[in-house]
Amino acid sequence: MDRFLNIMMAMDAKNGMGINNTLPWKLNEDERWFLSISTTTKDPLKRNAVIIGRLTYESFCKYLTKSFVHWHFIVITSNSLESIKANYEQSHLDAVRSFDEAVRMARGFLDDPEKGIESVFVLGGVQPYEQAMASDLVHRIYLTRIFAEYSCDTYWSNLNLSQFRRIQRSKDEILAELDDQIIEENGVTYQFQVYEFDGKQ
C-alpha cells in the first residue's frame, strides 16, 4: 500500500500535546493553519477523510463543529456508531474498532471516486499518531513546534522523524508561505514545520 496518510499535530518543546483532552495553548494562527490545511481540497466537491480517536473527536464536537462540513470522520472507538453520532449528528461519519480498519476504509474511499474523498489526515490522539507512524503509510507530517513548555498530561515521547525530511512546499499549496516561519503570538514563539517521507526504508 502506498503512503497516503498525512499527520497534523502540535507539540511543545518537550513533545507535550494536550491536557484534559484539550490543547494547553490558544494560538490563533496555529488554529488557522490546522483548519486551512486539513479542510482544503483542490476539488471543491470533495472533502478530506479524518482518522481520529474517540476522545479527540468528542473534543472536536465541542470546539470545531463549523468545520465538520469539510471532513469525513473515521472514528476509532469501541462504542457504537449511534453513540458517537449522539454527540453531533452528521452523515459523514463512520466508527471502526481499530486503526488498521480505519486505514482500510480510508484507502477504499480514495480508490472510489463516488466517495468524494481527496486526502486522508490523522488528527489524533497520540495512539492513532503512533500507529500511523508505525504503519509505514505516512507521506507527510505537518508539525507545529511550540518553543515553550506547558503543563501536559499527553506526550509523544518516542517521536522519530529520521525517515522524513523537512521541506518547503510549492507556492500553490495552502499557506505554503508560512512553512518554516517563526511566529510570535501572545508571547509564545512557534514554527510550522512540514516533513515528507524521504524514501529510505
UniProtKB/TrEMBL annotation:
CDD domains per the UniProt record, alphabetical: DHFR
Pathway: Cofactor biosynthesis; tetrahydrofolate biosynthesis; 5,6,7,8-tetrahydrofolate from 7,8-dihydrofolate: step 1/1
Listed GO MF terms: dihydrofolate reductase activity; NADP binding
Catalysed reaction equations from the record: (6S)-5,6,7,8-tetrahydrofolate + NADP(+) = 7,8-dihydrofolate + NADPH + H(+)
GO biological process: dihydrofolate metabolic process; folic acid metabolic process; one-carbon metabolic process; tetrahydrofolate biosynthetic process
Keyword field contains NADP: yes
Enzyme class, first EC level, given as a word: oxidoreductase
Swiss-Prot/TrEMBL keywords: NADP, One-carbon metabolism, Oxidoreductase
EC numbers, comma separated: 1.5.1.3
A single Gene Ontology CC term: mitochondrion
Domain DHFR per the UniProt entry, residue ranges: 4-197
Pfam families: DHFR_1 (PF00186)
Signal peptide positions on this chain: none
Name of protein: dihydrofolate reductase
Species for this entry: Adineta ricciae (Rotifer)
